[in-house]
Amino acid sequence: MRKPPKQAALLGALMLTLGQWSAPSYGQHSDALELYQASLAATCANCHGTAGHGVQHGGMPLINNMRSDQMLTILLEYKTGARSGTIMPQLCKGYTDEQLAVIAQQLGGKLR
């Protein structure tokens, strides 16, 4: 059944308006995701310094030369107990495997 022209015009205007409102949400979602990912990696700066450069002879490993895959392997080893440490095993257990992968990608991906 065909809709009268007035209803079709109103429906078209409504869809156009809703499309304009929803389009920015994709960008906002992307921005929120990027902020979330960066904030996960930023937690490492407390001990390892910004961008993983740390302080030479400061007692914390310098992580600025690691690839993402290397970093993820080490983080997962801390989480499972395969690698010992003082604070890192406890910290890694507080993250999901997916969050650790984000951290490794954020830091390792930028530090190569």
Would you kindly provide a written description of the structure presented here, covering whatever features stand out?
This protein has 112 residues and is an all-alpha fold. It has a single domain (5-111), classed as Cytochrome c-like domain (Cytochrome Bc1 Complex, Chain D, domain 2, Orthogonal Bundle). It has helices at residues 5-42, 45-48, 68-80, 88-93, 97-111. The longest helix is centred in the N-terminal third of the chain and has 38 residues, at 5-42. It is globular and about 75 Å long. The relative contact order is 0.12. Residues 13-23 have low confidence and may be disordered.
CATH class label = Mainly Alpha
**SSE order:** HHHHH
Q: State which percent range the strand residues make up.
A: under 5%
CATH topology, anyone? Cytochrome Bc1 Complex, Chain D, domain 2
What do the pLDDT scores average to? 79
Overall form: globular
What count of helical segments does DSSP give?
Answer: 5
Number of domains: 1
Approximately how much helix is present in the residues?
A: 55-70%
Catalogue the unreliable spans.
13-23
Structural class estimated from helices and strands: mainly alpha
Gyration radius, in Å? 23 Å
